[in-house]
Design goal:
Elements lengths: L5 E9 L5 H9 L17 E7 L2 E7 L9 H15 L3 E7 L8 H8 L5 E6 L7 H14 L4 E4 L8 H11 L17 H16 L9 E9 L3 E10 L2 H8 L4 H18 L2 E10 L7 H6 L5
Parallel strand pairs: 1-3, 1-4, 4-5, 5-6, 8-9
Antiparallel strand pairs: 2-3, 7-8
Helix pairs in contact: 6-8
């Protein structure tokens, strides 16, 4: 390792649907986090690792901050609050339309941070002029006076390079935390479940996608192919019927869409089998939440 090597944890927090996952994927250079227009798509803390001859950045995407309505959301909020504790640099992502005082309790904790805080004001491509941006920046500066502000459009990749350079400048010196070929600390099965869950979010409306959990029961990888069996858990029989659809048509569509992305992710041919099971009120059952990886 060269002298003055830098490494650190850069944790991304903020309210739902402000573009945290889009930003994370761009910073890492790989598609690791679910991106949809629906809120609460990220449920876990997802790590993406950037390796360079002079530094290693361990990014963490976290669920959007919200007031919990059930035990699953309590665990999701726990991942976000945990990210405040072990960060070397904290990225607080907002956008140009959200109210800065939303979830003020969490913001108060951010204001007490001793590590560098960068406020990423995302989606500035939606603004008409600098006057609007200046007003937004002033509000954030009054709420987080110690933070640096980065007006950004993650979708158009505007100012992301400058943000990345500043992150590198702020990293502490130290040994790398992971091997230089590591991309994430999550196992392969995790990304299969995330891809399937993303397709459910895109193909179904209302409450159904939020009542779904996906578990990979079989992941048999060979040199050129992977055989995957996954179970989609729902809370009610009526949701099971919606997921499957008439003659299994909707489930087949989810499977086909997921299989294409899984093949792209792993670079191998994929044989994917999907099953649907009912677990009543799983979002409030501690034993199941532990099995699904939300509670240690």
């Amino acid at each position: 390792m060269q002298p003055h090597f830098k490494s650190g944890f850069v944790n991304i927090v903020g309210n739902p649907n402000v573009g945290k996952s889009t930003l994370m994927n761009i910073l890492v250079g790989e598609r690791l986090s679910i991106i949809t227009s629906k809120a609460q798509t990220t449920r876990h803390r997802i790590t993406g690792i950037v390796n360079d001859p002079g530094y290693q950045i361990v990014y963490s995407d976290t669920p959007g901050v919200l007031k919990p309505k059930y035990k699953l959301q309590e665990s999701m909020l726990g991942f976000s609050e945990e990210a405040l504790i072990d960060a070397d640099v904290l990225l607080y992502v907002t956008d140009v339309v959200e109210d800065p005082s939303k979830n003020i309790d969490f913001l108060t904790k951010v204001a007490k941070e001793k590590v560098p805080v960068l406020v990423v004001i995302n989606k500035i491509d939606l603004l008409k002029g600098n006057a609007d941006l200046n007003a937004i920046a002033d509000r954030w500066h009054s709420m987080l006076p110690q933070a640096e502000l980065f007006p950004t459009s993650a979708l158009e990749r505007f100012n992301v390079d400058n943000l990345q350079r500043r992150i590198v400048e702020l990293l502490p010196e130290g040994e790398p935390y992971f091997g230089t070929d590591a991309l994430t600390d999550k196992p392969a099965r995790f990304f299969v479940t995330e891809i399937i869950r993303e397709k459910i979010l895109l193909n179904y409306d209302k409450e159904v996608p939020y009542s779904v959990e996906v578990i990979v029961e079989k992941f048999d990888e060979k040199d050129t192919s992977i055989h995957i069996m996954a179970v989609i858990y729902v809370e009610r029989d009526s949701q099971k019927g919606i997921i499957i659809g008439r003659g299994g048509e909707r489930l087949k569509r989810v499977g086909a869409d997921a299989r294409r992305d899984i093949e792209r992710f792993f670079g191998k041919r994929v044989f994917l089998e999907l099953f649907v099971k009912v677990e009543p009120d799983w979002r409030n059952r501690e034993g199941l939440l532990r099995r699904f990886g939300y509670i240690e």
